[in-house]
Write the structure tokens for this entry.
Amino acid sequence: MRMILRNANRQNLGHATVEDGNTPVKICTDRGHEVFLQWEAALDDGGQLRRCPLCGGDSLYRHRRFPQVTGFIIVLALALGLAGILGVTSGIPFLTAMLVVLGLDIAILLLSPESLQCYNCKSSFLDTPIASYHHRWDSKTASRHRRAPPRSSSQD
Ligand SMILES: [Zn+2]
């Protein structure tokens, strides 16, 4: 399982990987942060994540992560759309290019893997099986976990 870990203020602590079946209490992220994980309540009977092992939050949601090539596809689609509007290109080659971009977009949408994300701390858990009781992001659940922005340390 790959993890993108965040602290209580949702600041990115870095990436870490845990081998399947391992439940280390302490791990070190690629940014050099030591992070303590609580696995006892985090895993269900099937060994799938039920809670966030970092903050203990009981609300996780499914999240589809798009690969970085998606940004390139969006720029390509916008460029082709602009070329069509300006009349630079038209006809069969233009239509073919738009269909290729549309096909790539659909393939990326269908093939991109799902991950779990914690409503509370926004940590992400990738390359791990997701239990069927986890649903997609929900605004009501998210509003329960919404936080005030972190306070400045210069207040006194
Ligand atoms: Zn969490």
